[in-house]
Amino acid sequence: MAIPAGAYAFGVNTASVFADTAAVGISVSYVLAGTIGLHVDGPLLLAHTPLGETTGPLEPVPDGEPVTLTAGDVVVFPTDVALHIRNAGQRTATLISVLIVTTDAPAGEPQAVEDDAVRYQQLGLIDEDDWANVPAGPLTVSLQRTLLPQGATYGPYVVEPWAPELLSVETGLMEVGLDFDGDGMPDSWFAIQWNMTPGDMLAGERVRAIRAST
Questions:
Q1: Which of 1, 39, 90, 186 supports an S-S bond with 84, CB 3.0-4.6 Å?
Q2: Are both 21 and 95 inside the same structural domain?
Q3: Does residue 15 sit in the same domain as residue 95?
Q4: Backbone φ and ψ of 131, nearest 5°
Q5: Whether pLDDT at 202 is above 60
Q6: pLDDT mean over 52-67
Q7: How far apart, in whole angstroms, are the C-alpha atoms of residue 56 and residue 53?
Q8: pLDDT at 201
């Protein structure tokens, strides 16, 4: 989500993080750039972390207390509470979020109040079949942003069925290498320009590598 200077994303009467879902769950959000003012009418966990460093421990914030977030900060809050997000700085603020929600149908459509200048982009979706491989219990969510020069390769690395991965290209052209013959090295490469989720092409393939084409 990109919020221009002076714009806001959600009104204080919003019943959910996104206007098209009221499913119960949590939002894990990371500030990529800029300064964001956040007011959540409910529980909130916050980790103030300098951009590019490993996220520190999440600390509870008193319910309803506004917070100011800068690049590198992480917040966790429920998806079914009222909130307000605004740009509190002088340049465009960018926020990336992972929503982990129930598959139950929403009880109703919450009404979001938002600035027309705010831009949203869904990077991808990990479907129910892939989630079925994730064991019950505490869940670890990892976000990694990697800059690869043209021709550089990241990996190969192992992808376990119980830890589904969503890959998304921010800019340029990325190729993904998959291991089909089981020797631990990619033997087939596929070019993607937007995103790749755990799906039919990746089913059962545990080793992959990423290569920057442009």
A1: 39
A2: yes
A3: yes
A4: -65, -25
A5: no
A6: 89
A7: 9
A8: 52
8 A C-beta contact, residue 114 and residue 10: yes
Of 84 and 107, which is predicted with more confidence? 84
For the full predicted model, state whether its pTM sits above 0.90.
no
Question: What's the rounded Cα separation, in Å, for the pair 126 and 121?
Answer: 15
Which pLDDT belongs to residue 67?
A: 95
Task: Say if residue 37 is in the same domain as residue 109.
Answer: yes
Token pair in block for residue 200: 């039919």
By three-state DSSP, how is residue 129 classified? Answer: helix
Closest Cα to residue 7, out of 139, 120, 137, 97?
120
* Distance in angstroms (rounded) separating the CA atoms of residues 107 and 100: 17
Q: Could you give the count of Cα atoms lying within 13 Å of 160 in the half-sphere of its Cβ?
A: 5
Domain that holds residue 70: 2-121
Are 57 and 47 in contact, with CB atoms under 8 Å apart? yes
Residues in the chain, total: 214
15 and 72 share a domain? yes
